């Protein structure tokens, strides 16, 4: 069976929970041949994972950092790309593209998922023959875009408390069209026809799955890890832009999210928490199937803790969503009563500016917290901990929590996403950013070794019963079988030429 797996800012070019999930799924399903379609921030990112041989092809789609979007279409000769540009006169843009583009804008502004899907297919069809860059940079597209958004701004101003701020400025219009230029570049990709498509987020990476559903009836699976719409709302809450630009970006994201929910045959969130967002945005409950993340309990096993002072550990990248600042403040509060306690954050730096802010806060607090790099032995990191601490403000069903549980460690974590589902009865959840409560719970566990042992034993038992990787993978294979027409999934080695194609694409990356 052939499956198209789409990602956005994650596998195989970045670390994190989604990438761990992707790599685990692919490596444990040799019966399936995957085509990967990763949306990348730019074409110059380094490969973090070397996909296994059952990844037949990687169709890289850089959203930024390229002069011409056609550059990433490696399967088309340069001469053909040049000819496409010549076959994109103003008359073609006006007659063939603008009707679909105007319908797309209308669908965004009224959040009509069906209309959005139809317009995406029409624009994708157009870009099969015409040049993306020449079209999207044309004066005709600019004029149509400005006219529609200015009209929307006037309509909004009549009813919105923001009044005149709803009228887009030249800056607003320029920024908004620039975003569209980059976000829609995925329409220029050419994924193959497959048995099933599988998107790892209700985001722009789901667009090829939506168009395949509408064009060929290809079954679509959506695995929602973090709630994309919630995380974008968190991001936009600190987004220092003019009112209209922020309004447009949120409208665009909301429309794309709802279209993913609308056209997916099965929405498979990694925890029940996500379902409240999915249902609120139009997903029928009957097509939601929760599939928890799983870990290998034979790898993540309990082990003796090395001798030394009390140790609190986090395995999380340095990122605003992980709220490293709260971890630092908790460390400072705990050290007031437990001066010998050690604090370590194992995780790469994903936001350099935020890392600098955290270093400044660490100096201001006068607390010794080791941080700034990942570990090569995450199991040893968990075993070295008395308490594993997670202070995130947004999560899905984090691997760091179930890995720590599988290693038999007591966990204190933010009550976000599916964390409460994982730790119910075997760990401690705390309101996000509640420094005092975090510190109190960490102190309690450091002082009570029998309680730590009881929670650790329950946590390990819960992983064995509910959060095993083999059960998670089997659930996805069952989805592929059901949606793909019940085709037999038999391990078939790739021919040498296909294996070489996969390796070559990795080297090129």
Give a short summary of the structure.
This protein has 509 residues and is an alpha/beta fold.
How much of the sequence is in beta strands?
Answer: 5-15%
Overall body shape: globular
How many DSSP H or I helices?
20
**Largest sheet geometry:** 7 strands, parallel
Mean pLDDT: 91
* Structural class designation: alpha/beta
- The N- to C-terminal Cα distance equals 25 Å
Please estimate the helix content: 40-55%
Question: What would you note in describing this structure?
Answer:
The protein is α/β, with parallel strands linked by helices and 509 residues long. The protein folds into 2 domains: 286 residues, no CATH class; 156 residues, Rossmann fold, CATH 3.40.50.2000. The protein contains 20 helices and 13 strands. Strands 1, 2, 3, 4, 5, 6 and 7 form a 7-stranded parallel β-sheet that branches. Strands 10-9-8-11-12-13 form a 6-stranded parallel β-sheet, with helices on both faces. α1 links the parallel β1 and β2. The two termini are 25 Å apart.
Please write out the topology.
Layout: E1 2-8, H1 17-27, E2 33-40, E3 55-58, E4 61-62, H2 78-86, H3 90-110, H4 113-129, H5 132-136, H6 139-159, H7 170-183, E5 196-199, H8 207-216, E6 220-222, H9 228-236, H10 243-263, E7 266-267, H11 275-280, E8 311-315, H12 324-337, E9 342-346, H13 352-365, E10 369-373, H14 378-383, E11 387-390, H15 399-406, E12 410-414, H16 419-423, E13 428-430, H17 435-447, H18 449-466, H19 469-483, H20 496-508
Parallel strand pairs: 1-2, 1-5, 2-3, 2-4, 5-6, 6-7, 8-9, 8-11, 9-10, 11-12, 12-13
């Amino acid at each position: 069976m052939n499956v198209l797996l789409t990602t956005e800012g994650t596998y195989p070019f970045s670390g994190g929970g989604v990438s761990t999930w992707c790599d685990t799924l692919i490596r444990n399903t040799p019966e399936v041949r995957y085509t990967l379609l990763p949306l990348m921030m730019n074409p110059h990112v380094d490969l973090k994972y070397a996909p296994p041989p059952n990844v037949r092809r990687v169709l890289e789609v850089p959203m930024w950092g390229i002069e011409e979007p056609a550059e990433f279409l490696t399967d088309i000769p340069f001469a053909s790309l040049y000819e496409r540009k010549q076959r994109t006169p103003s008359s073609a843009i006006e007659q063939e593209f603008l009707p679909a583009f105007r319908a797309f804008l209308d669908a965004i502004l009224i959040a009509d998922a069906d209309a959005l899907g139809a317009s995406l297919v029409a624009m994708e069809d157009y870009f099969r023959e015409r040049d993306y860059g020449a079209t999207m940079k044309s004066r005709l597209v600019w004029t149509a875009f400005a006219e529609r958004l200015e009209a929307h701004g006037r309509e909004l101003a009549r009813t919105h408390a923001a009044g005149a701020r709803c009228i887009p400025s030249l800056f607003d219009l320029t920024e908004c069209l620039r975003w569209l230029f980059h976000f829609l570049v995925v329409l220029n990709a050419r994924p193959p026809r497959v048995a099933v498509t599988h998107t790892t987020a209700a985001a722009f990476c789901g667009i090829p799955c939506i168009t395949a559903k509408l064009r060929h009836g290809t079954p679509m699976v959506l695995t929602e890890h973090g709630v994309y719409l919630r995380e974008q709302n968190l991001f936009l809450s600190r987004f220092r832009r003019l009112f209209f630009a922020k309004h447009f970006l949120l409208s665009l994201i909301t429309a794309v999210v709802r279209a993913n929910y609308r056209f997916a045959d099965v929405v498979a969130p990694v925890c029940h928490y996500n379902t409240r967002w999915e249902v609120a945005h139009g997903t029928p409950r009957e097509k939601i199937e929760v599939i928890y993340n799983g870990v290998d309990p034979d790898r993540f096993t309990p082990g003796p803790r090395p001798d030394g002072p009390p140790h609190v550990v986090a395995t999380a990248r340095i990122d605003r969503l992980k709220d490293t600042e709260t971890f630092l403040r908790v460390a400072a509060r705990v050290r007031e009563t437990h001066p010998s306690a050690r604090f370590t954050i194992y995780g790469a730096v994903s936001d350099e500016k935020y890392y600098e802010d955290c270093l400044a806060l660490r100096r201001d607090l006068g607390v010794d917290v080791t941080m700034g790099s990942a570990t090569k032995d995450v199991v040893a990191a968990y075993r070295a901990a008395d308490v594993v601490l997670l202070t995130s403000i947004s999560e899905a069903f984090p691997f760091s929590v179930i890995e720590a549980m599988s290693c038999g460690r007591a966990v204190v974590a933010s009550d976000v996403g599916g964390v409460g589902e994982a730790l119910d009865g075997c760990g401690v959840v705390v309101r996000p950013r509640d420094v005092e409560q975090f510190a109190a719970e960490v102190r309690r566990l450091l002082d009570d070794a029998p309680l730590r042992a009881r929670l650790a034993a329950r946590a390990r038992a819960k992983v064995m019963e509910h959060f095993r990787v083999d059960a998670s993978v089997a659930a996805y294979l069952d989805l592929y079988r059901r949606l793909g027409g019940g085709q037999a999934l038999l391990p078939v080695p790739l021919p040498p030429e296909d294996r070489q194609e996969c390796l070559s694409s990795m080297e090129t990356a």
